């Protein structure tokens, strides 16, 4: 059998398997892979993220999450500055280089606000809570599981949209057809314009029993331009 024919044969078997899965079944399988003991819902823990940019200096972020206590803390080190956001239930604290007495100039320079703190909490909770976060209220999953080729590999794909108050972007999530591991995702603000970004995932870091992607590499959809890579560590 020629290589091309073999690839088509294997692809046809994968298509058959994909057609037997509903979107809910696929989501269940990928959550079982990444969070087999259902630990995310009551997650208590910390992790570090190193962000390497294409056109900026490296940023180190230390994140603490305690969902039962409604606690979130983010400490960022970049360009000889260290700032921290802390949200605890209904309270918000911000510090810069160890002091809470921050000038208006520095608040603007580093974008230090409680609104920014809440944005970071949502951002890290969403990205590091995937695919479990796809069970959240306001999330709409297209019932059709698509088999598609993305960046040279065959994937099972879910299309996800959200209630307007949750999010306006269109998201696609790509899962390995054999293990159901989440290996890529992308979003569009306006899909007809091919805007937005895609993110390629590689490696795994197990934190509190949850298999989280070790490395995320970010690119623009429109031209594949590289934006940066974030690396997860315990």
Description:
22% of the residues lie in helices and 43% in strands. It is of the alpha+beta class and 234 residues long. The chain has 2 domains: 20-39 and 136-233, no CATH class; 42-128, no CATH class. Strands 1, 2, 3, 4, 5, 6, 7, 8, 9, 10, 11, 12 and 13 form a 13-stranded antiparallel β-sheet that branches. A hairpin with a 2-residue loop joins strand 7 (146-150) and strand 8. The longest helix is centred in the first third of the chain and has 18 residues, at 3-20. The termini are far apart. The model is unreliable at 1-5 (pLDDT under 50).
Number of helices: 4
Radius of gyration of CA atoms, rounded to a whole number: 20 Å
**Number of folding domains?**
2
* Strand proportion: 35-45%
Write down the overall mean pLDDT: 93
Structural class: alpha+beta
Oligomer: single chain
Note the gap between the termini.
46 Å
Low-confidence stretches: 1-5
**Considering DSSP H and I runs of 4 or more, what fraction of the residues is helical?**
10-25%
Biggest sheet character: 13 strands, antiparallel
Please count the beta strands (DSSP E, at least 2 residues each): 13
What is the string of helix and strand elements?
HHEEEEEHHEEEEEEEE
- Can you tell me the overall shape? globular
Blueprint (SSEs and pairs):
Layout (H helix, E strand, L loop, with lengths): L2 H18 L2 H12 L9 E10 L5 E8 L4 E8 L2 E8 L2 E6 L7 H6 L4 H15 L10 E3 L4 E5 L2 E10 L7 E6 L6 E7 L8 E11 L2 E11 L5 E8 L1
Antiparallel strand pairs: 1-2, 1-13, 2-3, 3-4, 4-5, 6-8, 7-8, 8-9, 9-10, 10-11, 11-12, 12-13
InterPro entries: DUF6503
Protein name: Aspartyl-tRNA synthetase
Pfam families: DUF6503 (PF20113)
């Amino acid at each position: 059998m020629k290589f091309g024919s073999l690839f088509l044969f294997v692809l046809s078997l994968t298509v058959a398997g994909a057609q037997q899965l509903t979107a809910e079944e696929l989501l269940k399988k990928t959550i079982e892979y990444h969070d087999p003991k259902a630990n995310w819902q009551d997650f208590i823990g910390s992790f570090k993220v190193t962000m390497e940019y294409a056109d900026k200096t490296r940023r180190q972020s230390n994140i603490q999450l305690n969902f039962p206590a409604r606690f979130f803390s983010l400490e960022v080190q970049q360009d000889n500055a260290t700032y921290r956001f802390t949200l605890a239930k209904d309270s918000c604290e911000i510090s810069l280089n160890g002091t809470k007495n921050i000038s208006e100039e520095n608040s603007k320079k580093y974008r230090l606000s409680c609104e920014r703190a809440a944005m970071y909490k949502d951002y890290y909770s969403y990205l590091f809570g995937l695919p479990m976060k796809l069970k959240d209220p306001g999330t709409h999953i297209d019932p059709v599981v698509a088999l598609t080729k993305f960046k040279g590999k065959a994937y099972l794909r879910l299309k996800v949209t959200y209630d307007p108050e949750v999010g306006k972007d269109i998201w696609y999530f790509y899962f390995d057809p054999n293990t159901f591991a989440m290996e890529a995702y992308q979003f569009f603000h306006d899909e007809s314009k091919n805007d937005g970004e895609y993110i390629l995932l590689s490696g795994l870091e197990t934190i509190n029993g949850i298999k989280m992607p070790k490395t995320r590499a970010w690119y623009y959809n429109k031209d594949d331009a590289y934006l940066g890579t974030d690396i997860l560590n315990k």
